[in-house]
Design brief:
Strand order of the largest sheet: 4-3-6-1-7
Number of strands: 11
Helix content: 55-70%
Number of helices: 24
Number of domains: 2
Structural class: alpha+beta
Radius of gyration: 27 Å
Shape: elongated
Strand content: 5-15%
């Protein structure tokens, strides 16, 4: 049984991988256990690693260094791919207000962290670790640790220790604030849910379907292409029912509209309120009635899986002239977009088309419409992205007043490159699409490797650190958790009059806390908390990482 002893207490590659795998397996198993509906998830891996480190298990430092770095790069890069497609769109319109409030939470947290550092003389690296745990943001902890290593040439174990100490209360604290806000404002959840549902019926910016009767004499006899030149709004006329001939046709640019013709329009409510008076009057005809008017025409959703289509605009594909179908909507990551001619299509988009059965079958073959193709990994985009991320993270930037050049680091560079590639990679025919399950698996593998290696490395000093004053870190973490979200929660309700369900989703998204999101979602059948969480999550994740770096770079 000597080989067992060598695997457990020896040295070398086999021993290191063996111990890390055990720590990850136990941590993942415990992460599935929920207490009062709350689980620490993959963070259990860090705590199990700390236990193993405290019990005397050691791993090869060079191998551990590689595991940490590569695991963190994988995790951060795939987080970037996940949030990237919605990163820039989340900064527009109503999302801008939500993100500004989320930014305020982040800035307040950083400010409180710095003030606590000044008052208590706790090293800024330690306070940064406490802050990352208080807001349950693992990537920022990893980036802070890597940034400290690049600046000083050594790891600071208190970054991970501070994170571990503050993390549990970081999860529970957000839930307590949600409960407190509900009590302060005497929230009636049924009323808040009803308000949200009434608002959703009148979404202003998302693509919707409307029916119109042409009654404006100035429009009679004009073609659709001429009408679109007159009305500078994004809209698609899908089908036209001619009143004089009782015939239905797919709308073509040359289609002439006459008195009392009925048209099916896809546009946003905001645009429709402008378009409707210029064309005629709104009528109540649902899509099923349109289908009954001409049974030859079908409406189908087609998945784009052909890599040759990736990065091309709708107008470049000429689907109407080549296949005889009309593209009405594009669903991207669950959000419906108006199919304007200049919209760039991406792998994984689902487009709604109207046409005959044979035409739809032909365009489906052209666009791919294959889930099997989507399941195939695009490894080139992954590894070229990591290469570019490491290159960007290695570039030294010099700032006035700072003697040493600043680097984004491998993780920071990888995050930025992933966001940029997922948005603009289509222009260079780079397919960054990965299935949700593949993205989640690689992220979980990466972060589990990182947390296991970190936990084992810092475990030997954990109890001693707590006894020698580390217990105060819990108090510091609680302050960083509670104050920013409580202040912004009150501000969001009193000043911005946000719906409570929307507000708590925003708050939870600003601290990237999925466990608290599960609690918020349980308060109502409405998905408002998830929507606002998703709106602020991309920018929040990015800023959390950057802010952790800034604290280390400027104040260590």
């Amino acid at each position: 049984m000597a080989f067992i002893n060598e695997l457990l207490f020896g040295t070398g590659t086999a021993h290191t991988i063996f111990i890390i795998a055990i720590v990850v397996a136990i941590g993942i198993f415990l992460g599935k256990i929920k207490i009062f509906g709350i689980s620490l998830g993959v963070t259990w891996v860090l705590f199990i690693g700390i236990v193993f480190g405290h019990l005397g298990f050691r791993i090869d430092e060079q191998i551990a260094g590689f595991v940490k770095e590569f695991g963190l790069i994988l995790f951060v890069y795939f987080v970037g791919l996940q949030v990237g497609p919605n990163f820039f769109s989340s900064l527009k319109k109503s999302g801008l207000k939500f993100n500004l409030l989320a930014i305020l939470i982040i800035v307040l947290g950083v400010f409180i962290t710095f003030i606590l550092h000044q008052i208590t003389n706790t090293p800024i690296s330690t306070m940064t670790g406490i802050m990352t745990g208080a807001v349950t943001n693992t990537p920022s902890m990893g980036v802070a640790q890597q940034t400290y290593l690049e600046m000083t040439g050594q790891y600071d174990p208190t970054i991970a220790l501070g994170y571990a100490v503050a993390y549990p209360l970081g999860i529970i604290g957000v839930i307590l604030v949600v409960i407190l806000l509900r009590y302060i404002f005497k929230i009636d959840l049924s009323k808040e849910t009803a308000d949200i549902e009434n608002y959703n019926k009148n979404k202003e910016n998302q693509a919707q379907i409307f029916s119109l009767k042409i009654t404006n004499p100035n429009i009679f006899g004009k073609s659709i292409i001429d009408i679109k030149k007159l009305i500078k709004r994004d809209f698609v006329i899908s089908r036209v029912y001619h009143s004089d001939t009782n015939n239905m046709e797919i709308a073509q640019p040359s289609t002439i509209l006459n008195k009392d013709d009925k048209v099916l329009i896809v546009t946003s409510l905001q645009n429709f309120n402008v378009i409707a008076p210029l064309l005629g009057e709104k009528i109540q005809v649902d899509t099923e009635q349109w289908d009954k008017l001409d049974e030859k025409l079908l409406s189908e959703q087609i998945i784009i899986s052909n890599s040759k289509v990736n990065g091309k605009t709708i107008s470049q594909l000429k689907l109407r002239s080549n296949f005889g179908v009309n593209v009405t909507r594009v669903n991207r990551a669950g959000y419906d977009l108006v199919a304007n001619p200049h919209l760039t299509l991406q792998i994984g988009d689902r487009i709604s088309v109207v046409g005959t059965e044979s035409a739809i079958n032909n365009v489906a073959k052209f666009l791919g419409n294959s889930l099997k193709q989507l399941n195939e990994p695009n490894l080139f985009a992954i590894f070229i992205g990591i290469v570019l991320g490491i290159l960007l993270g290695s570039i030294p930037f010099r700032f006035p007043g700072i003697p040493e050049p600043i680097k984004l680091g491998f993780a920071g560079g990888s995050l930025i490159v992933a966001i940029l590639l997922s948005n603009f990679g289509t222009r260079y025919r780079i397919v960054t699409y990965t299935t949700v399950s593949a993205n989640l698996m690689i992220r979980e593998i990466g972060i589990a490797m990182f947390l296991a290696a970190v936990g084992i490395s810092v475990g030997k000093d954990f109890l001693q650190t707590i006894v020698e004053g580390g217990y105060l870190w819990i108090v510091y973490g609680a302050i960083i958790t509670f104050l920013p979200i409580l202040i912004v929660g009150i501000l969001g309700r009193l000043v911005f009059k946000l719906n409570f369900l929307t507000l708590i989703g925003l708050i939870i998204g600003s601290v990237t806390n999925p466990a608290a999101l599960a609690f918020a979602s349980s308060l109502s059948d409405n998905d408002a908390p998830i929507v606002s969480y998703s709106t602020v999550y991309p920018l929040t994740m990015f800023l959390r990482v950057i802010m952790a770096q800034i604290l280390i770079l400027f104040f260590v």
